[in-house]
Amino acid sequence: MKPVFRFGAASIAVGVVVLLLKFLAARVSGSTALFSDALEALVNVAASSLALYALIVGAKPADREHHYGHAKVELLSAVATGAMILIAAVLIFQRALGEVFHPAPLAPWRHGLGAGLAWNFLAGLVNAAWGVVLMKVSRAYRSPALGADARHLFSDALTTAGIVVALAGAALLRLPVFDPLIALCIALNIAVMGGLTLLRSLSGLLDEAPPPAMTARIQELVRQHAKGALQAHDLRVRQAGPASFLEFHLVVPGEMSVAAAHDICDRIEAALKQEMEGVVITIHVEPEAKAKSLGALVP
């Protein structure tokens, strides 16, 4: 089993544990804010399950129906995660808004609320710790699905910390209306996180260009290893989840043999693949008549 699959499966197990802790917290406290936090945890479990499915499908090799592989399924998974987060925000908002005008009394500190906050705080710590692990793994394996899951966990941990502090303050001040107001803040926070997750994922689906630093490094490697060529131009890079696709035009002298031109391409490809694992490279070899006066990488 690949490492990303193991982490994807572990995310589901962690999510279930956090979900149980948060529903226990909501049950013993009767708090709308804690129930809202538990509802978000339910989205976490669904998102982690979807991420694991995307990782498994995305790892499949290219076939006759999908010549460029299945890597974009991870981006689709991240889009679905963002959509689920937004749906949870709407559900929380509906419930909390009704209770703002008719707030229920908070449970006594010693007979429910204190225990609920303790359970919820523990769940937040679990989420934060696992979010750190997932973010490192998502960067190491360039996984949008795990990255979206990690960002959601960080948001959830921050929300949990805010809930514990705010509800403790509401109990001390004896202001039960703070409970649904906190739930409304939770809805707003996760709506923002869901929207950001959705936008990042859609950018990937639209073949957004890589960061400028990555593009600059690619150009530098092409220049370093294109000795014998006259020019390289029209470099384009796109990413589909963990996969990268790179292409450019390489201009060589008209009298150069096919074998010599191929050797130059091999050198460039070897250098690029050493730094970009799994990159698919397409080089269009052209005669010197195709050289361009602008946008050239070589010489």
Which helices and strands, and how do they pair?
Blueprint: H1 3-29, H2 32-58, H3 73-101, H4 113-140, H5 144-173, H6 178-205, H7 212-225, E1 231-240, E2 243-252, H8 258-275, E3 280-287
Parallel strand pairs: 2-3
Antiparallel strand pairs: 1-2
Helix pairs in contact: 1-2, 1-4, 2-3, 2-5, 2-6, 3-5, 3-6, 4-5, 5-6, 7-8
Care to describe what's here?
It is built from eight helices and three strands. With 299 residues, it is mainly alpha-helical. It has two domains: 203 residues, Alpha-lytic protease prodomain-like; 79 residues, Alpha-Beta Plaits. Strands 1-2-3 form a three-stranded mixed sheet, with helices on one face. Helix 1 packs antiparallel against helix 2, helix 3 packs parallel to helix 5 and helix 3 packs antiparallel against helix 6. The longest helix has 30 residues. The mean pLDDT is 81.
